[in-house]
Amino acid sequence: MSALLPYLVLLGFLAATLGFFTWLARRIRRRGTAGGGIGGALAAYEEAFRTTSHASHYEIRAQTERKAPADSPDGWRRWRRKG
């Protein structure tokens, strides 16, 4: 049993480290406080390992950047083409 103790300590340390980084990533995503570097690293990770999550991330970003047409003062929406 004493021969396995260093391996168990190492395994426990790795599990705690991965758990901490998972918690940190969720907190950063939820609060939206990720800077450019962290956001890029998380996007690269999702692109490599979670392809569906990565695709939906870009779709959500595109949806938030779209602007809904505003109502005119008289209550009717005016659909005009810009250009």
Automatic annotation (TrEMBL):
According to the record, the segments passing through the membrane are 6-25
Keyword annotations for this protein, in alphabetical order, are: Membrane, Transmembrane, Transmembrane helix
Q: Where is this region: Disordered?
A: 61-83
Record's compositionally biased regions (Basic and acidic residues):
61-77
Top-level taxon: Bacteria
Spell out the protein name for this chain. Answer: Secreted protein
Originating organism = Streptomyces hokutonensis
Q: What is the lineage of its organism?
A: Bacteria, Bacillati, Actinomycetota, Actinomycetes, Kitasatosporales
